[in-house]
Design a protein that fits this description.
It is a single chain. The chain has 143 residues and is an all-alpha fold. It is 52% helix and 0% strand. It has six helices and no strands. The longest helix has 19 residues. The protein is elongated and about 90 Å long. It starts with 5 loop residues before the first helix and ends with a helix.
Length: 143
């Protein structure tokens, strides 16, 4: 499952721009390059969300689609040597800032929490417990 798709990216970029970003020869959109940018965007989202939420996020919040698109487009532009458009850079920064707030718990998502799913703080660790003391101060005073 991905948070965004090629069609989401195509709604943001003209076909000619997408061709320039993915194919150095300018022949056609390189599907593999687009898929890799989407995978990288998904991985970025998951890294920020994994401590608090079960990943992949489910249900996928609508905001994550836009965050995924902004990160994927930034990744596509990063492949080029020339200057990235400032609005694309700003969108990326805003997406990362949003994810930072999610990871800090300042923004709550309506997704399954990691602790509810058995993950989170104690996932993969050891939980130690102890019994009630049999010989405490009150018991010993009787002797």
């Amino acid at each position: 499952m991905t948070y965004s798709s090629k069609s989401d990216i195509q709604q943001q970029l003209d076909e000619s721009v997408l061709i320039q970003l993915t194919d150095p020869d300018g022949a056609a959109v390189d599907e593999d390059v687009v898929a890799r940018a989407i995978e990288d965007a998904d991985a970025t989202i998951n890294v920020y969300c994994q401590e608090l939420y079960l990943i992949p996020l489910s249900p996928v919040p609508n905001k994550m689609r836009q965050v995924g698109v902004d990160i994927a487009i930034y990744k596509l532009y990063s492949r080029r040597d020339d200057t990235m458009p400032e609005p694309r850079r700003d969108n990326y920064k805003d997406a990362i800032k949003f994810l930072g707030k999610v990871s800090e718990g300042k923004i709550k998502l309506k997704c399954q929490a990691a602790k509810e799913a058995g993950g989170g703080e104690y996932s993969g660790g050891v939980i130690v417990s102890s019994r009630k003391k049999v010989f405490d101060t009150d018991t010993m005073d009787k002797y």
